[in-house]
Amino acid sequence: MTETDAALRTLAQNVRAARARAGLSLDELGRRAQVSKGALVGLERAQGNPNFATLVRLADTLGVSVSALLEGPAEGRVRVVAADAVAPLWTGERGSEARLMLTTTGTPTGTSPVEVWRWKLEPGEEYPSHPHQPGVVETLSVTTGRMTLIVDGAEHPVEAGQTATFDGEAPHTYRGAGSASCHLIMTVHLPPGPSSSPGPVGGA
């Protein structure tokens, strides 16, 4: 079995399990996440190649992190993840990329899971993120370079050494600024439990 086949099998198992926990049919999950039933059937059979935006919509609708859909069982009490060991989930035409490094595990006492991302944004290149479910909070810490964070249409410059935070349910875009690559660490704080919103999640 190739690494791709193994990853698809893990994704299929995790989506089926999360859908069962949320008590959603394929039709209902597809309606809320704006994903066709045919695509969901293929995904749960470890077929197809879902893109980043589809994974984000499914994770939001199921109330789990993206990495919870992609990862197998946790191993050990301490995890050390190298950036070059994680494939980008998004790459831009100019060389920008986003890598989901890991997700901390939530607890029954109410501690919410947190995703940790590494982003590289090239000057002028942007990624428009779809609005997340209510309760999601994003924090961006720029380590080198400059970026422009756009939330609800308002632009906010963020430079090396600065950190910004905002509610992820608002429409938002990340854009590289200046003349050099921008590197940043993003944390996404997720609310506990599956989404109970009856309406569809916004598209990417």
For the structure shown, list the relevant keywords.
204 residues, alpha+beta, single chain, 10 strands, 25% helix, 6-stranded antiparallel beta sheet, 29% strand, globular
Give the SSE layout.
Elements: H1 3-22, H2 26-33, H3 37-44, H4 52-62, H5 66-70, E1 90-91, E2 97-103, E3 114-121, E4 126-129, E5 137-144, E6 146-151, E7 154-159, E8 163-167, E9 172-177, E10 182-189
Antiparallel strand pairs: 1-2, 2-3, 3-10, 4-9, 5-8, 5-10, 6-7, 6-9
Helix pairs in contact: 2-4
Description:
The chain is built from 5 helices and 10 strands; from the N terminus they run H-H-H-H-H-E-E-E-E-E-E-E-E-E-E. Helix content is 25%, strand content 29%. With 204 residues, the protein is an alpha+beta fold. A hairpin with a 5-residue loop joins strand 1 and strand 2 (97-103). The strands form 2 sheets. Strands 1-2-3-10-5-8 form a 6-stranded antiparallel sheet. Strands 4-9-6-7 form a 4-stranded antiparallel sheet, with no helix packed on it. The protein has helices at 3-22, 26-33, 37-44, 52-62, 66-70, and strands at 90-91, 97-103, 114-121, 126-129, 137-144, 146-151, 154-159, 163-167, 172-177, 182-189.
Q: What sort of overall outline do the alpha carbons produce when their principal axes are compared?
A: globular
Low-confidence stretches: 194-204
Oligomer: single chain
**Which structural class matches the secondary elements?**
alpha+beta
Largest sheet: 6 strands, antiparallel
Strand content: 25-35%
Order of helices and strands: HHHHHEEEEEEEEEE
Q: What is the arithmetic mean of pLDDT?
A: 83
Work out the number of β strands: 10
Helix percentage range: 25-40%
The number of helical runs is: 5
Spatial extent as radius of gyration: 17 Å
